[in-house]
């Protein structure tokens, strides 16, 4: 039985679910201070990205 590229095998699905549960368990072990520091770091990155401006300079060949 051939699988489509968009379909995942049952093994992959269980691997993803296991990885997701592992990340959830790890995050629950963190202290409130660690959670606060991570949240402030993400907030600062978000503010920086909000202010970012993308400019495009056309390529000039010599």
Cα radius of gyration in angstroms? 21 Å
Helical element count? 2
- Shape, per Cα inertia axes: flat
Percent in helix: 55-70%
Low-confidence stretches: none
DSSP strand content: under 5%
Structural class: mainly alpha
In short:
65% of the residues lie in helices and 0% in strands. It is an all-alpha fold.
Can you walk through the features of this model?
It is built from 2 helices and no strands. It is mostly helical. The mean pLDDT is 83.
Give structural attributes.
single chain, 62 residues, mainly alpha, 65% helix
Topology:
Layout lengths: L9 H20 L2 H20 L11
